[in-house]
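User: Sequence recovery, please. Input:
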């Protein structure tokens, strides 16, 4: 998701650029950029926690032995870095590197075996076969299909032979009847389509096979109830999508639907929140992993 954060900041800036003078624009853009970064960091931190609970693990690839000894691990589009920092504390003999277009402010007590770099997943700034494990996720909302395929190729390129690549992606369209939430998701997909992006969770396994560079490709799918119906994990999931569809993308969704932001909040979003709280909104999460030949 980190790859798309810079794009979202630019889009938010464009929304206000027509309404402010050049002088006030500079301060306002800076404040908006900071707010978006903080919201995205909060979202990715919660996301890391409930993804761990949903899959009952931080990873599914069989890399435990490598982590205990001296592995070299990269998380791309790492966001707040919560996963990396937690893993670095648990596996002090391994090295953990986070890659993001817009790296988050780092905590002062960052583990010594952790580092973060600014970089693009379309061109990972490392030599071939450097890492034992590459982890990423939520790329489908930022990349076209061609870009996604290239990102996979880049991850495989920097992974050692015998190393593993793992990708987490959600399918957020509701499995059960939830018309307001479904309309928000459909509108979000419409926004993506305007940028040439289509959600392709159903294509991801084929894309991994088609590289011919991975073997032992596996996947796991979990269904989660969004909101109180899903217990603590469901509440965390609802919080993530509240930040996503209310704060990060709310204005764009309102514009796309021909509504003001307040109208969007008081009608469609309010009704979607009620569905989260009182209905059984089910969505799916996928985890794919494969070993480099």
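Assistant: Recovered sequence (293 residues):
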């Amino acid at each position: 998701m980190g790859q798309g954060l810079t794009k979202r900041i630019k889009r938010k800036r464009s929304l206000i650029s027509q309404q402010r003078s050049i002088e006030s624009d500079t301060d306002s853009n800076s404040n908006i950029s900071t707010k978006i970064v903080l919201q995205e960091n909060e979202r990715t931190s919660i996301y890391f926690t409930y993804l761990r609970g949903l899959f009952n693990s931080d990873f599914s690839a069989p890399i435990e032995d490598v982590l205990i000894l001296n592995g070299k691990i990269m998380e791309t589009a790492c966001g707040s870095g919560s996963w990396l920092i937690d893993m670095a504390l648990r596996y002090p003999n391994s090295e953990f590197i986070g890659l993001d277009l817009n790296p988050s402010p780092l905590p002062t007590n960052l583990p010594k075996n952790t580092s973060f770099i600014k970089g693009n997943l379309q061109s990972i700034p490392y030599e071939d076969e450097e890492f034992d494990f590459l982890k990423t996720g939520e790329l489908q909302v930022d990349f076209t299909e061609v870009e996604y395929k290239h990102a996979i190729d880049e991850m495989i390129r920097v992974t050692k032979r015998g190393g593993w690549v793992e990708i987490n992606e959600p399918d957020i369209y509701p499995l059960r009847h939830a018309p307001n939430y479904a309309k928000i998701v459909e509108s979000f997909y419409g926004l993506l389509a305007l940028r040439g992006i289509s959600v392709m969770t159903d294509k991801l396994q084929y894309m991994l096979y088609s590289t011919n560079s991975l073997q032992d490709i596996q996947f796991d799918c979990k269904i989660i109830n969004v909101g109180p119906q899903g217990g603590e994990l469901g509440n965390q999931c609802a919080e993530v999508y509240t930040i996503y569809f209310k704060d990060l993308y709310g204005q764009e969704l309102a514009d796309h639907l021909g509504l003001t932001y307040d109208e969007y909040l008081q009608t469609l979003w309010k009704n979607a929140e009620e569905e989260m709280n009182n209905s059984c909104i089910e969505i799916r999460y996928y985890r794919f992993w494969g070993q480099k030949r």
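The first helix runs from residue 2 to 17.
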